[in-house]
Amino acid sequence: MDTALEELYAQVPQPGCKGLCQDACGPIGMNPREHQRIRERGVKIPHYQDGLAELVETGNYTCPALKDGQCSVYDIRPMLCRLWGATETMPCTYGCLPEEGLLPDADGHALLAQSLDVGKPDALSAEELERLRQRFDDPKFRRTVQDAAKNNRLASNPEKAVEYWRDKAARYGTALPAAPKKKRPRRRRG
C-alpha cells in the first residue's frame, strides 16, 4: 500500500513550500493507510467529520500535526495536503508555485480519488478515472469545484466564512439559521 501511495505522491508537483500556510490546514479526508502512518508517528488527527464538528462548535480547528506552525508529518502528509499549492483550484495564497506549473484540476482530483482507493478491492477503473477527468471539460462542473475549494478555504477563518454566507443569504433574501444547539461530537476510533 505504501508503494502505491508513494507512486501517486510522486505525480504531484512540489510547490516549494515556504511553511507559511498553516492557516489553510483544516479537517480533511484521507486514506486509512495515510491516517495509520500519521498515527504511527504519534500524531492523532481526528476523523474528518469530528474535525468539522470541532470547527463548527468552537469556530476553531488546529491540525494536531502542526508544531510551531510547521507540519510535523510533512514527509508522509496525505494526498490532499500534497495537492494544496500544487493544483489550479488550490493555489498557494503565499505565492509558492511548482516550477512545472500547477497541476490541472482534473489530474489533481484523479490523484485524490486514486489515493483514497489504495488498498480497496473495488478501486476506480481506468474508464472511471477518465470519466472523472472528462467532467472537468464542463465549465459548470469546474466552477462548482472552484467554489467548493474557495468555501473550504473560508473554513480556516470562521469570521470570514460566516460573513461570506451571511452576504450570500442576504442576496437571496434569506438569513442564516440560528446556530445549532451544541452537541457532543461522536468519538471515533483513529
Folded structure, characterized:
The protein is an all-alpha fold and 190 residues long. Helices cover 45% and strands 2% of the residues. The chain is built from 8 helices and 2 strands; from the N terminus they run αααββααααα. A two-stranded antiparallel sheet has the order 1-2. A hairpin with a 2-residue loop joins strand 1 and strand 2. Helix 5 runs antiparallel to helix 6. The two termini are 18 Å apart. The relative contact order is 0.17. The mean pLDDT is 82.
For the residues shown, what is the average pLDDT? 82
End-to-end Cα distance, whole Å, is: 18 Å
Low-confidence stretches: none
Quaternary organisation: single chain
* Computed CA radius of gyration, to the nearest angstrom: 18 Å
Q: What's the arrangement of strands in the largest beta sheet?
A: 1-2
Q: Note the main sheet.
A: 2 strands, antiparallel
Order of helices and strands: HHHEEHHHHH
Helicity range: 40-55%
Q: How many strands?
A: 2
Domain unit count: 1
Total number of helices: 8
Ordered list of secondary-structure elements with their pairings:
Layout: H1 2-9, H2 32-40, H3 48-58, E1 66-67, E2 70-71, H4 79-83, H5 105-117, H6 126-135, H7 139-154, H8 158-171
Helix pairs in contact: 5-6
Question: What keywords describe this structure?
Answer:
190 residues, mainly alpha, 8 helices, Puta_zinc/iron-chelating_dom, Fe-S-cluster containining protein
